[in-house]
Amino acid sequence: MITMYLLASVGGVFFSFGLFLAIKEMWLFHRVKTLNSEQKKANITQLLYKVGLARGILIDKYAITKTGSRWDGFKSFTVIGKVKESDGVYSFLLQPNDQQILASFFPGQHVMVQADIEGQCQTISRAYSLSDSPEKLEHYRITVKKQLAPSRKPDVPSGIMSTYLVDQVEVGQQLKLSAPSGHFCLNVNQHHPLVLIAGGIGITPFISMINAVINANSERTIWLFYSTQTPHTRVMFEHLQHSCKRYKNLHVVMCYSAATSKWLDENEQQPTDSRLSSHSGRITLALLKQYLPSNEGEFFVCGTKQMMAQMQENLLLWQVNQENIHFEVVHLTAGTLRKTIQTSVTTENSIICCARSGKSLKWHDSDEGTSILSLAEFNGIFIRNSCRSGECGMCRTKIKSGEVLHLVANEETMKVKGTCLPCVAVPNSQEVTLDI
User: Fold this and answer.
1) What are the Cα distances from residue 239, in Å, to 15, 32, 244?
2) pLDDT (tens digit per residue) in 122-176
3) 70: Cβ–Cβ under 8 A, 6 or more apart, which residues?
4) Neighbouring residues of 266: CB distance < 8 A, sequence distance ≥ 6
């Protein structure tokens, strides 16, 4: 009888405490939504994390941080390390000049990197995924692939920022970074299987996710399907090998799109760990079914638009819950997008008329990584922007005539009729006039 009384008393205490946390959590959510000051939001969300993180709350909409504090705009960082990962791919370790504890982030989020590059009339900003665990708050790490000019378009310039970082930036130099942001991120408190599908440099946010799950001492099963051209183009493979040895629930399936099975047998040392395997060809639905025990789990896909469209079709065909499928694009190609959505519009050499500046810009459908924003910047036209991924809405521009196509579909791109977000928009008519 006494034992039952004690159990009931303890249960009542835990229930009351849980109710208190729930009420406090609701109040804190309300405060975050109504505050205008980002600093006040950061302070309150630290409390919210203490109250709700153990319950698996993911509230990245407000860029909530676990430790450190979020900052507005850009602040200065020093490059304290530069590591070659493969040909044309380097990792950069970035430490804040103010020596403050960095804002934590959700695995998979990105930062904006800003630099004044010689020959460019405007400051250049680009988004790069954070490629390490959120627990390392003394510095951030980004991994950058130099984007070369398309082989069929040698007159088109290489990626401005990636070329600058890879070829010119060295240890000791300064860069400016935004606070981490983005909706392509992982909640490490979940326990259902995690399936990561990477194409090329799309591996970078998944390194952050894998590291975070391992460091959290989770028992979560992780499947990584990583597609690259050959063993010479893979990124952080030694780290993945080490992670497989360290974490028994990690499975890595390498897919080499430009290597034959014969070549792999003759030149590639076969993995001794059964949880690390290699295949010739691309990632297919048949391959996923070969390894995955079921279609249950949370699926993240990061790669080219073409790869993402194919993966989405495959996963839906397999009846994966659409709410469990997450995408992020690493190369935006207008021509590929139009093939994907089966439109008959041809906009090669279309013209973008800039009403305010009076300039007319010539568009090339096959330009890798091109958006209206990047084309405008290359031609000396400044458009206010921040995220460059269609999330913040800062670059919203009025369309005076013609049509555009957004490379991503979300709440921001569909919000205001007659406008576009140039950071993720391409022309969809022979002539487009924008209020820039």
Assistant:
1) 44, 38, 9
2) 778 788 999 998 887 889 999 999 987 666 555 556 688 899 999 999 999 999 9
3) 38, 39, 41, 42, 63, 103, 179
4) none
Tokens coding 292: 């995955």
Determine the pLDDT at residue 23.
54
Closest CA to 436 of 379, 392, 391: 379
- Cα 414-205-268 angle, rounded to 5 deg: 130
The answer to whether 123 touches 108, Cβ cutoff 8 Å, is: no
Global pTM reads: 0.71
- pLDDT digit string, tens, across residues 172-205: 999 999 889 887 889 888 888 999 999 999 999 9
Indicate left, alpha or beta for 108 from its phi (over 0: left) and psi (-120 to 50: alpha).
left
Q: What is the largest CA-CA distance in the chain?
A: 87
Distance from C-alpha of 430 to C-alpha of 421, rounded to nearest angstrom: 19
Distance, in Å, from the CA atom of 263 to the CA atom of 433, rounded to the nearest integer, reads: 51
What is d(CA 344, CA 352) in angstroms, rounded to the nearest whole number?
19
pLDDT digits (tens, 9 = 90+) for 61-116: 333 444 566 787 789 999 999 999 999 999 999 999 998 888 889 999 999 898 99
Cα three-residue angle 379-165-96, rounded to 5 degrees: 110
- Cα–Cα dist 303/55, whole Å: 31
SS (H, E, C) the chain: CHHHHHHHHHHHHHHHHHHHHHHHHHHHHHHHHHCCCHHHHHHHHHHHHHHHHHHCCCCHHHCCCCCCCCCCCCEEEEEEEEEEEECCEEEEEEEECCCCCCCCCCCCCEEEEEECCCCCCCCEEEEEEECCCCCCCCCEEEEEECCCCCCCCCCCCCCHHHHHHHHCCCCCCEEEECCCECCCCCCCCCCCCEEEEEEHHHHHHHHHHHHHHHHCCCCCCEEEEEEECCCCCCCCHHHHHHHHHHCCCEEEEEEECCCCHHHHHHHCCCCCCCCEEEEECCCCHHHHHHHCCCCCCEEEEEEEHHHHHHHHHHHHHCCCCHHHEEEEEEECCHHHHHHHHCCCCCCCCCEEEECCCCCEEECCCCCCCCCHHHHHHHCCCCCCCCCCCCCCCCCCEEEEECCEEECCCCCCCCCCCCEECHHHEEECCCEEEECC
Instruction: Give CA separation, 233 vs 43, 141, 280, 405, in Å.
Output: 43, 20, 14, 32
